[in-house]
Design brief:
The chain has about 260 residues and is of the alpha+beta class. It contains 7 helices and 9 strands; from the N terminus they run αααααααβββββββββ.
């Protein structure tokens, strides 16, 4: 079944600039639209339409950083007919407007995204460990609590942890509003080979949705892995996750975390 969904996902990545319908995407997988939609959501955690929208924003991020195209040209290139609609959706997903994202990313100024502001009065926390797959050295990992299966703006809480190769590292997300949250992790790791810092790998991972109750700590272990075709692209503007280089800083000997400001109450 995953191969069928992967075929449809490849179709989305190839044709994202076109006004694709659910029927067209389902036909690329040789399935009926209703059965396909259910199968697709089981494999990816989101609908085909939401996946298509995520691919468009992801490609727009890439174009903003790798080309001199205007924002208007980029909006049309990724399938939008309205600059206003593109700008609004990009900003909601990435956490920056297209122009601000381009300036901040090219200028090296993207910091840890601020958590969502909420009027809720009951908060708990999520804590656990982050571990790397075999064959990887030190990694910097962003861990956050999100309302959806996509890493997109805003998070409820987030930290960046330095994870040493070969053993798990702890993380702690404070001030998570009560409710159900997806725990997502994105990292960049060194390969555990000579001159490892010249061989970096992007990793992802997460945990099934967790229920956070007031004044309690919910446990959620996260193991990172290589990306899969069924993973929705990361939309949130993330801080620099390049691992620390040998000789530049002291070796990582314990869990380190950079905590954001707590959510406003």
């Amino acid at each position: 079944m995953d191969k069928t969904v992967e075929r449809a996902i490849a179709f989305i990545w190839e044709r994202y600039s076109e006004p694709l319908s659910l029927t067209e995407i389902a036909e690329s997988a040789l399935l009926s639209r209703f059965y396909f939609a259910r199968l697709f959501r089981q494999a990816t955690g989101i609908t085909p339409g939401r996946f298509l929208a995520a691919v468009r924003i992801y490609q727009a991020k890439h174009m903003l950083l790798s080309s001199s195209m205007t924002i208007t040209d980029i909006s049309f290139a990724v399938g939008y007919n309205s600059l206003g609609s593109f700008t609004n959706y990009f900003t909601d997903s990435v956490g920056f407007s297209p122009g601000r994202f381009r300036r901040a990313a090219l200028g090296g100024g993207i910091g840890l995204p601020r958590p969502r502001q909420t009027s809720r009065s009951a908060y708990g926390a999520v804590a656990g460990t982050v571990s790397l797959p075999e064959g990887h050295g030190n990694a910097r990992v962003y861990v956050g609590a999100f309302a959806t299966a996509i890493v997109q703006h805003p998070s409820a809480a987030a930290v960046v942890v330095d994870v040493p190769g070969g053993r798990p590292c702890c993380y702690h997300l404070p001030d998570v509003p009560e409710g159900t949250w997806f725990i997502h992790a994105v990292g960049v790791a060194d390969s555990a080979i000579p001159e490892a810092w010249s061989h970096r790998t992007e990793l992802g991972g997460g945990h099934d949705p967790v229920v956070v109750a007031a004044d309690t700590v919910t446990s959620a272990a996260v193991r990172l892995r290589s990306s899969r075709p069924t993973d929705p692209p990361v939309l949130l503007a993330l801080p620099d996750l390049e691992p620390r280089r040998p000789g530049q800083l002291q070796a990582i000997t314990a869990c380190a975390a950079v905590s954001p400001r707590p959510a406003l109450r």
